[in-house]
Amino acid sequence: MANISESIEQFIIATMGDNDFVDISRNSLAEYFSCAPSQINYVLDTRFTVDRGFVKESRRGGGGFIKISRIKSSDTNAYLNGLVLESIGDELSYKRMIQILDKLIADGLMNKKESELVEASLSEDSLSMPFTIKDKVRAKAFKNVLLKLMITK
Amino acid sequence: MANISESIEQFIIATMGDNDFVDISRNSLAEYFSCAPSQINYVLDTRFTVDRGFVKESRRGGGGFIKISRIKSSDTNAYLNGLVLESIGDELSYKRMIQILDKLIADGLMNKKESELVEASLSEDSLSMPFTIKDKVRAKAFKNVLLKLMITK
DNA sequence: TGTAATTTGACCATCTTTGACTAATGGTTT
DNA sequence: AAACCATTAGTCAAAGATGGTCAAATTACA
Q1: Residue B114 sits in the same domain as residue B61
Q2: Contact B144 A126 (CB under 8 A)
């Protein structure tokens, strides 16, 4: 954990604990970690994303705040279907796939090992094909993984 | 130990000791040995290979790292390795992959769900690419799955 | 002496950190 | 109210910090 961003991420997650949400103050957090306030935004933008299962709300001015909430995926299949139909288009980068896999784990739809097997199957190295259709193939393949998840349970 | 590469190799191995992985910083190591950073990559590429029982992961940017893991030698891994090196060549048909997956389940190395996820990832439909590179891609991808099985857990 | 292995360096890709400038909100003062 | 001010948060681009790739130059060795 050599960089501040990761520490901040861990701190926020720890603070949230088992709760559904947590309120933070951007400036206080920045001061606590001796970093630029905008770094808090960076952490929020790169780590507390929808793909990873979080939504954010905030307000500026006196008494301002940033509220981070966990997305509850109550209707699993509707959620997976949303991923298949909307979030994933015709192409899917490796990086984005990892984000989605992380979220599937967070939602309890997969465990680490399962995720790693899919990751190994569809990594950049695995899909070492002569053309630049990697992302297209990955998109199609990963949709099949999600589809399988819907019926496997 | 006439050349630097060998020293670097020994240093990394010594640092790893009995652990099953080690984190290194490319730049620090290069500085320590007064060599070009890319020489670290050279050492990694020529000595810490899969054939020699290592797998690598890395991240760039602040707090970046290179993680080298040791594939533990066990009967299981010897068996998986056999599959990688012998049974699977440059091409792997869907049918044959299913056979191997079934065997992995029978041997207790995977469960049904895990198998199905891999199957979904590398099915004929998923690998919808022009012409006959399907089996080549599947071979490479599936080898990565087996590799992952070796270091997972 | 010719081939393979090693060493270097220029250039690239990715992730993080910082800071200047902007926008919104609530309270205070006219 | 309207104007003003203090207090927050947001955006974005530049700089910094790593690791990756590739090929030319050099060295080792059979």
Answers
A1: no
A2: yes
The H-or-E segment that residue B22 falls in is: strand B21-24
Report the domain count for chain A.
2
Residues 6+ apart with CB under 8 A from A9: A43, A47, A48
Question: Residue A105 phi/psi, 5° resolution?
Answer: -65, -45
A128-153 per-position pLDDT tens digit? 765 567 777 877 787 777 777 766 54
* Domain containing residue B134: CATH number: 1.10.1200
Residue A39 pLDDT level (bands cut at 50, 70, 90): very high
Who touches strand D, with Cβ under 7 Å?
A 2, 24-28, 37-38, 40-42, 44, 56, 58-66; B 2-3, 24-28, 37-38, 40-42, 44, 56, 58-66
Q: Are residues B90 and B60 in the same domain?
A: no
What would the pLDDT profile of B91-144 be if each residue is shown by its tens digit? Answer: 788 888 888 888 888 778 888 888 888 888 888 888 877 656 777 788 777 777
Query: What is the model's pLDDT at position B23?
Result: 97
Using CA atoms, how far apart are residues A124 and B141, in angstroms rounded to an integer? 9
Say whether both B89 and B34 belong to one domain: no
pLDDT at residue A21 in the model: 93
Instruction: List chain B residues with CB under 8 Å of A114.
Output: 113-114, 117
- In the block, tokens 């000791």 appear at B17
Chain centre to alpha carbon of residue A68: 13
Looking at residue A48, which CATH number applies to its domain? 3.30.56.130
Residue B59: domain span = 4-70
pLDDT tier at A126, thresholds 50, 70, 90: confident
